[in-house]
Amino acid sequence: QVLAGVYPIAQLQDPYSAVGFLGSRLALPPLLQLRPPSGPGWTAWELCEAWAEKRGYKTARAARNDGPRAANRILRLAAEGRLRLCLTPPGFS
After folding, report:
1. 39-89: per-residue pLDDT in tens?
2. In 3D, which of 28, 33, 19 has the Cα closest to residue 67?
3. In the chain, which residue ranges form alpha helices assigned H by DSSP?
4. Does RNA-binding appear among the keywords (predicted)?
């Protein structure tokens, strides 16, 4: 619903699940030019942390990477059409 523009991105309680859905269907690391993680693969949290590091999104007090802000921005890129997500309808051959 978020990626279709039906549900507002700002209202999400857990943006990482939507980023995980997007990341499972798109090759986000090469599209966003992110450095690979130390582990075997990317999780939604690692995608957001890497994007926050690249863009310089930091929290006000602790100056740590701001993951929710990065997740919000990734979802807005998809909603604006800067990241293209095309899904085939169920039963389409």
Report:
1. 778 899 999 999 999 999 999 999 999 999 999 999 999 998 899 888 788
2. 19
3. 15-25, 28-32, 44-55, 67-80
4. no
End-to-end CA distance of the chain: give it in Å, rounded: 24
Distance CA 11, CA 57 (A): 20
Give the burial string for 54-64 (b: 16+ CB within 10 Å, else e): eeebeeeeeee
The model carries a pTM of: 0.87
User: CA-to-CA distance for 43 and 61, rounded, in angstroms?
Assistant: 26
Q: In the numeric block, which tokens belong to residue 58?
A: 């930091």
11: containing domain: 2-80
**How many domains does the structure of the chain reveal?**
1
Residue 54 CA, distance from chain mean position: 13
Residue 16 in contact with residue 38, Cβ under 8 Å? no
